[in-house]
Amino acid sequence: FRLGGARSVVQRGGLFIDGRNTRFEEERIGATASFSLPVFRRPDGSASVSLDYDFDYLRMLDDEYGDPDPNDILPRFPESDIKVAGVAARFSYSDIEGYPYTLGPQRGKTLSLSMRVDHPNVGSDFTGLNLDYRFHTYWRMPWGRTPVLSMRFNGGIRTGNRERIGQFTLGGVPQQDVVQSVLNNLRAGNTGYLRGYEFQAAVGTQMHLMNMEYRQELWNIEWGLATLPLYLRKIHWAGLFDMGNAFDGEFDPLD
What we know:
Blueprint (H helix, E strand, L loop, with lengths): L1 E16 L2 E23 L2 E18 L19 E13 L2 E2 L6 E14 L9 E13 L7 E13 L7 E3 L7 H6 L18 E3 L1 E19 L6 E17 L8
């Protein structure tokens, strides 16, 4: 059983003054209550279900809008002083197997499904439905000790009557500050992207994505120079294939 709360203040856009998109400060106060139950726990796999209740209150703190000029375009204000609340149910399963000296997981699969419903009966000012899925599987190839083929499918659908409905974005790997990434040990993930396209190239209330990867170790080095903070672990190569789209409207597999 878990209880949580948070408050944050962020800069957002969406306040249009004389046709100009102006940033403003938005405060978000949120609370979460959830519990999780194991369906089963075995050495070769596990599954669990969970139920969450989430509540968020959003309001505008300040903005640049003052007395209106009669010659200006009418201002358009973002949604503010609103309550967004919903109940979510989740299921997860995993039987992934991995080993210390291999390239990540070697065999098995993971599956997660989630559904969230926002409704005035649970304290929300809006109605909404979010459906999400993720399936990841690994096959260890019979040639060699390290070759692995993995496939990942994930996506979701979001709908509702809220003006600022959360949308999916899909595209290539975002630009990264290499120096800060090394200092803070941050790295871009190797899945979840549609490589070959600009970052956030596709946006919509529905998204489906497939990532396929084949990877194989070339050289297991495991060598460092005395106590210097430099260490060479291994060199490997990977072949990648991505296919997906984010869009509004109905799903068409040929689109």
